[in-house]
Amino acid sequence: MDADKSNSAPEDLKANEADTPSSKLARFPADEPLELDSGVKLGPWQIAYETYGELNADKSNAVVVCHALTGDQYAASTNPVTGKPGWWSLMVGPGKPIDTNHYFVICANVLGGCLGTTGPATINPETGKPYGLYLPVITIRDMVRSQARLVDYLGIDTLFGVIGGSMGGMQVLQWAASYPERVFAAVPIAAAARHTSQNIAFHEVGRQAIMADPNWRGGNYILEGVRPTKGLAVARMAAHVTYMSDESLHQKFGRNLQDREHLTFGFDADFQIESYLRHQGMTFVDRFDANSYLYVTRAMDYFDLANEFDGSLANAFKDTKTRFCVMSFTSDWLFPTSESRRVVKALNAAAANVSFVEIEADWGHDSFLLNVPEMFETINGFVTGAARARGLPAPGEEV
Amino acid sequence: MNLSPIQTKSGEIRGDHKVVASLVPVGSRVLDIGSEDGALLDLLVRERKVDGRGIELSQEGVNRCVARGLSVIQGDADTDLADYPDRAFDVAILSQTLQATREPKEVMSELLRIGKQVIVSIPNFAHWRNRAQVVFLGRMPVTKYLPYEWYDTPNIHFCSLRDFVDLCRELDANVEKAIALSGKGNKIPVNAPWWVWNLIAEQAVFLLKR
Q: Among residues A23, A60, A77, A166, which one is catalytic?
């Protein structure tokens, strides 16, 4: 089957976004390559980002927001592909916990992504064709390296804060470990210092779904004018289940039937949950690149911060001056509280300055993206305290 | 969880907190176990300029602490003290919490390991009012400062001041200072032998060293 014609408009838009994003863009020439964990020097390369708020005179109020697996740089502004509001508009904006009246917020598309930072859909300058699987495998540390280069490029030395949930939280931990002197405060939410076997297993299911789609074509689908939409949709459906909790699924859908009175004794979407998941899968393929999904899930799988430090997570934070606020959610079984506690334990062993709270919320892993007042209160308090310690005017005080 | 029966009007500093604060060296590294809403830790950060950390059991308590800019983790004195290295803090404080731990001796031993000095405040189960209720009424004591019934109390390991001093001896901890307090947390200005304090003090604050 060829690419669905009805998808062609967003496909084109997305293809353009991969090379010439609507957002801000920093390009690095071939003689300023990015050195990757795989040993490859990637160059030229580019990183697409958005900023919100104003950088103050002494450049001390910058906050890097790190996005999750399928997130993007549009944390607090409209996504040009979907037309939807920024994915963390509840957290970032004027008067929000990350208050853009006070802080200069930077959010970059991750390396390997598909909205403007170098990724598998980007044109490989050596061949004039999209990288596809010729892009080296990317790691979380590579993503953070690229962000550090962007921060250099913006002329900023020390960040006031780095914050993110899920894979964003992994990047926060990597930032704190790789550049301790450049991170004043770190907020990893619903995160972990390693991907567990179960996490890797779910990702492998998603990747196999993509690669089993005949339209994947060994990763060359863009050149061949097709898209592995079905495989990518199935990958998203399987992953989406892991972002929710049994409780939230039960509350939202129960065993309710979709637009029908009785079971059809067939394989249509009889149940609301089926219809919902199909919708999630179908809308996802309009905004995400299948090869990017392979690369970014792989980056998460490879993440095990302690590995870099002789197997000791505490060593990752040795002598750190960074203030940490670690947060987990009761119903999150994908990045459970035990993984956050593992991080807290290591931080305590390193005598680091750390706050930790497990927030009661029923919505599973996705809670960090949702309206959870206790999360906002905690972050608000932590950020205000950190601002005071940093000598920045906190929200509510003189600007 | 607020284990302490001592309630004050908002903004007012609790008497036992003042006593604890007076024992904490200025600028020291402090771990406060059982931070509740952060009132003591906040006092220590403001008045004694400490580098302070806290552990608190309840999400609500941790939220209130973090919201006032304190570094507090959600955790449990019985299980989470093991994570800290030896002598990680100048002062480890256990305020009105020991009686609610599952293994008070183990907790005390951990405190003495991670803190160069340890400050413990405890309610005195052997106060005369408590004794009187047991002896004359034949009932477990319920008083203004120990307001729980036996079946709903979080306080599972009560001791008297003398019992506590015995435990310190067993753990090789020197009692450097002991201050007897009334139920409201005011100092009892009496120089008296232990058995008197054990009768008239409703609570006490101990400064220990090993």
A: A166
